[in-house]
Design a protein that fits this description.
Length: 312
């Protein structure tokens, strides 16, 4: 998103304040009813140039929404899906790996959490963000498609001595569940408000006018449900999504996603329950393959609840 009115467009559509140059922020997008229609990470590359990251399955929806809200603003919104691709590195030695290949200081003081900047990695020109969906210290790295193989080789070669290993979508799903991180089209959908999804901490009604602001100031925007993380007593099967959540003889909610937490050795599930029950802990069951399994609401993420690893 770039142009003289780039900030004006994003300020109108994002419920959070825009970041300073070189920084990133998490920013829900709302409709006029205060419901979620987007879950974006916004990075500011210059005063009039922003880099947005969101779910690829929602890209067309985002592009149409920005076009609808653009009006007469002097701003260009373009897809980078075909022109940028990349890799993610994560784990306690991720900074050590990046420092071996980047031609810049990537220490925590110089490149803190939620920073974004161009870096030269080996011979590759890349855009690097200090973020990670794993909950660990990590980076997301974007480059032109024709440079991705070179980027991969540079990281792999430098990482061999550090114990670098591949991880895929199933591992990522397990790690984000252990942090209670929601994802678009599962936990975050237009049928829920920011308050229901636990994203209201990223909504700033005092920043000025934006789409959905008036709605979230009303009681209705609080919604009837709350997203919660459950630990499930199940040794042979995990929830996947759409399983009913029971309390006594009534269904009080539904699972949005689930899986096995390999770090903690427990089955986990994210799901919505009735708002009046969301502050309880025990007394729930989640039905998996037709069998009700005992489930408990966790009051905090079971792995690194304060997020110290991401910020280390």
């Amino acid at each position: 998103v770039e142009g003289p009115d780039a900030a004006a467009l994003l300020d109108r559509t994002a419920a959070n304040r825009l970041p300073l140059e070189g920084r990133m922020t998490l920013a829900p997008m709302l409709n006029d009813r205060g419901s979620l229609i987007g879950d974006l990470t916004i990075g500011r590359l210059a005063d009039d140039r922003f880099f947005l990251v969101g779910s690829s399955i929602a890209e067309l929806h985002y592009l149409r929404w920005f076009e609808k809200q653009r009006d007469a603003l002097d701003v260009a919104v373009s897809s980078l899906l075909q022109t940028q691709c990349g890799l993610a590195i994560a784990g306690p030695r991720a900074r050590e790996l990046l420092s071996r290949v980047a031609r810049a200081d990537v220490s925590n003081d110089s490149f803190p959490f939620l920073s974004i900047r161009p870096l030269t990695i080996g011979p590759v020109q890349a855009l690097v963000a200090r973020v990670s969906f794993t909950g660990e210290l990590g980076y997301e790295i974007w480059t032109a498609p024709e440079q991705q193989r070179t980027l991969y080789d540079v990281l792999r070669d430098a990482g061999d001595a550090l114990g670098l290993r591949h991880f895929g979508a199933q591992a990522l799903n397990s790690l984000r569940l252990e942090k209670g991180f929601g994802s678009w089209a599962r936990e975050y959908r237009p049928i829920y408000t920011a308050a229901e999804a636990g994203l209201d901490r990223f909504v700033r009604p005092d920043k000025g006018a934006f789409i959905g602001r008036d709605a979230i100031m009303s009681e209705k925007a609080n919604g009837a449900h709350r997203l919660r993380l459950f630990e499930v007593d199940s040794a042979d099967a995990d929830a996947m999504g759409d399983e009913p959540i029971w309390r006594r003889d009534a269904v009080v909610g539904g699972v949005t996603s689930g899986g096995y937490g390999h770090t903690i050795g427990r089955s986990l599930a994210l799901g919505y329950v009735d708002r009046g029950l969301a502050d309880l802990s025990d007394g729930f069951d989640i039905e998996i393959l037709g069998e009700r399994r005992t489930a408990r609401i966790l009051k905090e993420a079971p792995v690194d609840p304060p997020g110290a690893r991401m910020r280390s």
